[in-house]
From TrEMBL:
Active site: 147 (proton acceptor), 157 (proton acceptor)
Protein known as: Enoyl-[acyl-carrier-protein] reductase [NADH]
Catalytic activity: a 2,3-saturated acyl-[ACP] + NAD(+) = a (2E)-enoyl-[ACP] + NADH + H(+)
Species of provenance: Virgibacillus salarius
Pathway assigned to this chain's UniProt record: Lipid metabolism; fatty acid biosynthesis
Subunit details: Homotetramer.
């Protein structure tokens, strides 16, 4: 099916083949979308171009964008505006916290570490929405990636859990702002998936084991499942939905 034929969609956060954003790339590509990518590190740029080559996907545009920097965001989106024009969607799949704060007690979080996690993992969605607003002239969809640690205490997730809570609240406030322009804003809350970022969270293997044992579907989710849920949010199939957090976690979040 060509659910996204003719749609220009910006994907932020492909760092490797394991990235959730790469699973999303596959799903959106199969649906016929025109894809624009942003990357932060040169290493990620190299990985991305190799991956696109290998999978025979042609990017419409690849631009650098460090979400920690307002100028970088402004520059990225003005380049997109100039070279592409109207966009119909944004996939926000970036987050960051200091590794040493993804273990031990949340009470030990430093001021800088707290602010950094909030800046990269939550405020970045606000900044990107602000920059993309005047490119989304035909309405569209913004989708971010969150995790259960926003709602519940998950061991070691700590400062990132609080950043994800802020991200989810931002999804609701942004949904209200953007609704009048025909833009929907939603989040996918994925179960644990082994990626570069996941390596930074201690006790990650235990989390995977817990899903296999306790989740209704008794197996872990993968990047493709998150990709297809994101495709749903990107497409007209979800046209009545905004401000929502959709769990793609084998049902784990309903179990007490
Ligand atoms: O279990 C998991 N892996 C889950 C991840 C479960 C549920 C949610 N998530 C979320 C993450 O919190 C994140 O929001 O999904 C999103 C993507 O995570 P991922 O796929 O696990 O992460 P990874 O493949 O490591 O990519 C993270 C990327 C970075 O790559 P770089 O180029 O920095 O190596 O996050 C991005 C970046 O693309 N990133 C930034 N991008 C722009 N500016 C920045 C920044 N300052 N910092 C990190």
């Amino acid at each position: 099916t060509n659910l996204l034929e003719g749609k220009n969609i910006v994907i932020m956060g492909v760092a490797s083949e394991r990235s959730i954003a790469w699973g999303i790339t596959s799903s959106l590509h199969k649906a016929g979308a025109n894809l624009i990518f942003t990357y932060r590190q040169d290493r990620s740029y190299k990985k991305l171009t190799k991956l696109l080559d290998k999978h025979d996907i042609t990017a419409k545009l690849i631009v650098s964008c460090d979400v920690a920097n307002d100028e970088s965001i402004t520059e990225a989106f003005s380049t997109i505006k100039e070279k592409i024009g109207t966009i119909h969607g944004i996939v926000h799949s970036v987050a960051f916290a200091n590794r040493e704060e993804l273990q031990g007690e949340y009470a030990d979080t430093s001021r800088d570490g707290f602010l950094l996690a909030q800046e990269i993992s939550a405020y970045s969605l606000v900044a990107v929405t602000k920059a993309a607003k005047d490119l989304m002239t035909e309405g569209g969809s913004i989708v971010t990636q969150t995790y259960l640690g926003a709602e519940r205490v998950i061991p070691n997730y700590n400062v990132m859990g609080v950043a994800k809570a802020s991200l989810e609240a931002s999804v609701r406030y942004l949904a209200e702002d953007m609704g009048k322009y025909g833009v929907r804003v939603n989040a996918v809350s994925a179960g644990p998936i082994r990626t570069l970022s996941a390596k930074g969270v201690s006790g990650f293997n235990e989390k995977l084991g817990m899903i296999e044992e306790k989740a209704p579907l008794r197996k872990n989710v993968d990047q493709d499942q998150v990709g297809d849920a994101t495709l749903f949010f990107m497409s007209e199939l979800s046209r009545g939905i905004t401000g929502e957090v959709l769990h793609v976690d084998s049902g784990y979040h309903i179990i007490g």
